[in-house]
Design brief:
2 domains, DNA-binding, single chain, alpha+beta, 22% strand, four-stranded antiparallel beta sheet
Length: 265
DNA sequence: CCTATAGCCTGACGGC
DNA sequence: TGCCGTCAGGCTATAG
């Protein structure tokens, strides 16, 4: 699930539920998801402290602890948070569980364990180490940067948009959505796009991500003109009604409308 | 250097 | 019902 819009919604959820709450304890139900700390270290650093700030960059969520240091959540393909009242059972595949003083708990759930949680002193150092580009919705992800990134690669536009080193936050689903809205074929070579197309793509990208966040990253809440709710086998193009095409592009499943999204490669 | 591909991990779904 | 293959909104290490 988690691309930029999803993670932004997780961040808002985290802020609304888990900020400024005394953490009485934390459980590590599966330490596969911890990347640079042991279960014991994790529990010790969290216990009797509070989360007091959050920040998102691309698909990463940073939460600050009031005793210094940040916890970094990455959600992989199947991660999410669930905040619930103490007595209830934690969801299946809960890997980490925070117990708050108000008798609520926050679960970090990750079915496939492709996500990771770690501790960092400085988020900016972490981002640099990961080689991440600017967050797709930030000011520093401007047209010039975007355009340079696309010129620098010979790959297809879809994987170029998903390259976190160029621009952080766009994944498989939203790259399809952005290309559909911009009416660009996903296999078009990134460095062959004309100036006008690059500009259109850039504005579409920002627009789609913002719209998705406004709709809580919920396909049901997307505008009728969006591909997302139709992105399934047998899906029809919301613009022309034609059959959507499903194809593997650099290892990932792409959906697009062959009629609306030209086929100039 | 670059880009493309297999592998990680677990479960859901469809076909036989 | 059971078994098997395929697929899944991410990233990394490795191969070419």
């Amino acid at each position: 699930m988690p691309e930029l819009p999803d993670v932004e919604v997780f961040r808002q959820y985290f802020e609304a539920t888990s900020l400024h709450q005394g953490i009485e304890s934390a459980q590590v139900l599966n330490d596969d998801v911890l990347s640079n700390v042991s279960a014991r270290q994790f529990q010790n650093r969290v216990r009797n402290h509070q989360f007091d700030a959050s920040r998102r960059h691309g698909k990463y969520l940073f939460v600050h602890l009031n005793n210094d240091g940040w916890l970094v959540f990455h959600f992989g393909m199947t991660g999410y948070f669930d905040y619930f009242k103490g007595k209830h059972k934690a969801p299946k595949h809960t890997r980490l569980l925070f117990q708050f003083a108000n008798d609520y708990q926050l679960a970090y759930v990750s079915q496939r364990k492709l996500g990771k949680v770690s501790f960092v002193e400085d988020p900016d150092d972490f981002l640099k180490d990961q080689g991440l580009g600017p967050d797709a919705l930030s000011e520093s992800a401007d047209l010039t940067t975007f355009s340079k990134a696309l010129e620098s690669t010979r790959s297809a536009i879809k994987p170029a948009l998903m390259n976190q080193g160029h621009l952080a936050g766009v994944g498989n689903i939203y790259s399809d959505e952005v290309l559909f809205q911009a009416k660009i074929h996903p296999e078009t070579k990134a460095n062959r796009l004309g100036d006008a197309e690059v500009r259109r793509l850039f504005h579409t990208l920002k627009e789609v991500l913002k719209t998705a966040i406004d709709g809580k990253a919920d396909p049901e809440q997307m505008p009728d003109s969006y591909l997302l709710p139709h992105r399934q086998k047998g899906g029809k193009c919301p613009a022309c009604g034609g059959n959507l095409k499903r194809e593997k592009i650099s290892g990932r499943t792409a959906y697009y409308c062959p009629r609306c999204q030209g086929r100039d490669k």
